[in-house]
Specification:
129 residues
Length: 129
């Protein structure tokens, strides 16, 4: 049995993660909050952190949670990249318009902070939020 097609491309990737019980409980709690199965949550979170970097993705997640519980808009005192990222993750077109940005302009600006596909990062962070 082979894990590649005839053209040599991999057909699937599997990754096993071992977590201590306390860490697994935290991940399970976060997955439930996001409304995802644990496996999907772990995959999305891993991709989000890989694309956006640990610090930037963590800051955006924390700020998006704050914004969601304080009116739904980013705080104008935050750095511009984080304001735009939070607005994109929360799908806050009202904030983007008020700030003078289109969605596409904000995504292009976000490409400076993201190492890989910004649209996929936005989708992943939105899913694990």
């Amino acid at each position: 049995m082979s894990d590649t097609e005839e053209n040599g491309e991999p057909t699937e990737h599997w990754l096993e993660i071992e977590l201590p019980r306390r860490a697994f409980r935290r991940v399970r709690r976060q997955a439930r909050r996001a409304g995802l199965p644990v496996e999907e949550f772990a995959k999305r979170a891993t991709l989000a952190y890989a694309r956006g970097g640990w610090d930037f993705t963590t800051n955006v997640l924390n700020r998006a949670r704050w914004a969601r519980s304080h009116g739904g808009h980013p705080d104008p005192t935050w750095p511009l990249g984080e304001q735009l990222a939070v607005a994109l993750v929360l799908d806050d077109d009202e904030f983007l318009q008020a700030a003078g940005w289109t969605r596409q302009q904000a995504i292009r600006r976000l490409d400076w902070d993201i190492t890989d596909d910004a649209e996929a990062w936005i989708t992943d962070v939105g899913a694990i939020l």
